[in-house]
Every structure is written in C-alpha cells, then in structure tokens.
Design goal:
The protein is elongated and about 120 Å long. It has helices at residues 3-14, 55-82, 86-108, 112-133, 140-151, 157-173, 183-265, 267-292, 300-313, 328-348, 379-390, and strands at residues 317-322, 353-358, 362-367, 394-400, 403-409, 424-425. 63% of the residues lie in helices and 8% in strands. It contains eleven helices and six strands. It has a six-stranded mixed sheet with strand order 4-5-3-2-1-6. A hairpin with a 3-residue loop joins β2 (353-358) and β3. By secondary structure, it is of the alpha+beta class. It starts with a helix and ends with a strand.
C-alpha cells in the first residue's frame, strides 16, 4: 500500500471534522448531534445581570407598598383613640414610629440592624400603656416589631416567639396590680387580645419566612441551571476544537515522520508531503479562527434546537413558531441572529418567556424581563446589523414595557430557490 496515498486520504478526511464516522446521534446533555452545521460556541457569563434586582427584593418592595400604608394608618388610629394627654400621644407615637422603622428595614432585608432598639422601645411603650396610660392597644408596636425580628433569627425562633407572647401577656396581666378594674376585663383587654394577636402575627411570619427561603432556593437553582448551560456550551466548544485540531495534528505527525524518512531517498515526495503539511496547518488555523470568532457556517434548525435547550435549562419558557423553511444562505444569517440574541437574553435579562417566530424571510425573538432602562449597547447585535444590511436585510431592536424584541428581515428569496414550506409549531 502506498503510505503517502493513505495519508493523503486521511488528510482529505481531516478537512471534514464535523462528519466523522461513528459520531453519536445525541450527546449526554440531551442535545442532538448536528451534521453539516455548527453549534453556537459563545457562552453566557451569567444568566442574570448583576444590576438586576433579586426576586426577594421585589417581593419585599411589594410588601412595603401594600402593607406600609395600613400599618401606618392603624398606628395613627391607635394613637388618636387611646391618647388622653399629649404625653400619651408622644409615647404611643414613639411605639408606632419604631414599628414603621422596623417594617421598612425588614422590607429592605436588614431588619436585624434595628431589631433590638425597636424591640426595647416598643416593649417600654407596652409597659407604659398597660401600667400607666391604661390603654390596651399600646401593644401595637411590639406586635409588629416582635414577629419581624423573630422571623430573621437564624435559629431558636420558636423559643423567641414563645418568649415574646409570654412577655406581652405578663405585662398586660400586671395591669391587675395598678387598677381597680375587674379582673375579667383586664384579662380580656390586656392579656388575651394582645397576646392572641401577637401570637397570630408571629405565626404568620413563619410561613412567610419559609416562602422567602423557597424563593431564594429557586433563584439559586436557576443560577445553577444557567451555569450548567454555560458549561455545556464550553464542552461543545471544546469538542469542536478537538474535531478541528486533534485529527489534524495526528495526520501532521505522521506526514512529518514520513517526510523525514523520505528526505534523503525521495526528495520530491518529501517536498510534496511538506507542502501538504503546510496546507493542512493553514486550513486548521483558518478553521480555528472561525471557531473562536463564531464564524463557522451555521445550521438554523440546529440553532433553534440549541436555543430551546439553553432557555429551558435556564428555567425560561420558550415557544417556537416555525412558519416556513428557509434557504441555506438566509438560514445561516438568521442562525447568527438567533445565537447572538440567545446569549444576550441569558446575560442581560431576567426573562421568563421567550417567543421565536421564523418566517420565510426573517426571524423575530421577543422576551420579557428586560430592564426598565435605556436601550443597552450590544456590540454583538451591532455587528450583526451590519451583516444583515450587507445581505440586503434589516435588523430591528426594540425595548418597550419590559419586553425586548429582536427581528431580522431579509429580502424575499427567488421562487426557483424556495424549498417546500411547511408549518411546524412546537
């Protein structure tokens, strides 16, 4: 057998790395192998923008908007109804202010900073109301601050809740020692009602705390899923880099060894082998550059499937409306738009839904979760805008009411180049 011919045949196969025989039809990450088309290689650094507000913060801000007015109004009513002197107004008002401060800081996520001072103030106000002013509603402040502070304790929350309820009941029961009122009225107005309301509010804070913990766990899980998607993209990049360089380097090694043996006995064949090595290395350099700069030919169907897998891995619902088939030239350009937009959504948005619509002459990607800010400067899309314009098309980017739209429109293809169309709705 002619060794040189055999190596030349291997060299020829080395130019088609994506069509290696024996390649599995599917990868362990669940993505299908793509013959004749490249996969996206640009990995997102992180699915959520660092400037994006966490879900917990938005929930606390919603609580602040909805609950702060009723809490403040309730405090004003307590002060207005139960105050008999300006001294009562000052003391009871101090308890209401402490309750409002604690609630605002709780909504901001750092109630622990003011928990102890507010607890001391509201406890003193409750003692004043029970023993001096004779107002059973003076527990209002501690009834707000106590549950908020207990919900942020790292441990022993049940013991702290029991201690709070016992304190409220004991301070109210001490009213019996300083008043001529009947014992049943004191027990109802200063023990049962204040302690009962405090117990209910404290009990409600336990599921509330668990709810926030679950939100935090879901956010962490989504981050892990998105990071896993990034790792998968890097693995795909490494796989294609191996396809390009691994086999080529092996062939170069064999050809170099053959040329070394032939350099003295057959100079012409040695020179031929060296020329083939030079051409092979040059071709590999070109392919590596195309891989690094994501300029390899793309397969639109593969890009659609990969975008769907990435979004689902990041916890984003995706809908693909494929109204028609696209010719290869337009598909390559639309695939680049889809890949760049997918990366931007994962990096810069907090999307929950993405809709991809593919027509015969264009593609439209719409996602929610866009930040309420001026349209960001996305260099990747700016480059694609030039490429689409060079192809006679137009790339449109819009951000409105929390939604981000990316749409690429190409000239209508000639009728003799149109593939058969079909409607594929997934």
């Amino acid at each position: 057998m002619d060794t040189s011919a055999h190596l030349a045949d291997a060299d020829g196969r080395g130019h088609h790395h994506g069509e290696r025989s024996g390649r599995p039809a599917a990868r362990p990450d669940g993505s299908a192998a793509r013959r004749g088309g490249a996969r996206p290689y640009r990995a997102a650094a992180h699915p959520v923008s660092e400037d994006a507000e966490p879900t917990q913060g938005r929930l606390r801000r919603l609580n602040l908007t909805l609950l702060l007015p009723p809490i403040a109004l309730g405090g004003v009513v307590v002060v207005a109804i139960d105050s008999r002197t300006w001294w009562d107004v000052a003391v009871l008002g101090l308890g209401v202010v402490a309750a409002l401060i604690a609630f605002v800081r709780w909504a901001a996520g750092d109630v622990s900073r003011v928990a102890l001072p507010c607890l001391v103030v509201t406890a003193a106000v409750w003692l004043f109301g029970a023993l001096v002013a004779g107002t059973g509603s003076a527990f209002y402040g501690i009834g707000v601050v106590g549950p908020l502070a207990i919900s942020r304790l790292p441990r022993h929350r049940s013991v702290a809740a029991l201690a709070l309820i016992v304190f409220v009941a004991t301070a109210g029961a001490a009213r019996v020692l300083v008043t001529q009122e009947s014992v049943p009225s004191v027990l109802i107005g200063y023990v049962i009602i204040p302690a009962g309301i405090t117990a209910v509010l404290t009990g409600l804070m336990f599921p509330n705390k668990r709810f926030y913990d679950l939100v935090a766990e879901l956010e962490e899980s989504r981050d892990r899923e998105a990071e896993l998607a990034v790792i998968r993209e890097r693995m795909r990049f490494a796989s294609d880099l191996h396809d390009i360089q691994g086999h080529t380097l092996h062939v170069v090694k064999l050809k170099a060894a053959l040329a070394q043996k032939l350099v003295h006995s057959d100079t012409r064949r040695a020179e031929e082998e060296l020329r083939e090595i030079h051409a092979l290395v040059a071709d590999t350099i070109t392919q590596t550059k195309e891989l690094a700069y994501a300029q390899r030919r793309l397969n639109l169907s593969a890009e659609l499937e990969n975008a769907k897998n990435l979004f689902e891995a990041a916890g984003i619902r995706v809908r693909v409306d494929r109204e028609a088939e696209v010719d290869a030239r337009a598909g390559e350009l639309l695939g680049q738009v889809l890949r760049e937009t997918t990366t931007n959504i994962l990096r810069h948005a907090q999307a929950e839904q993405v809709r991809i619509t593919l027509s015969q002459t264009g593609i439209t990607i719409v996602n929610d979760g866009a930040q309420e800010a001026p349209l960001p400067q996305l260099r990747g899309l700016a480059t694609l805008k030039e490429r689409v314009a060079d192809g006679g098309g137009e790339l449109t980017v819009e951000q409105k009411q929390g939604r981000f739209l990316t749409a690429a429109t190409l000239p209508h293809p000639r009728s003799d180049t149109l593939p058969k169309t079909r409607k594929d709705r997934r």
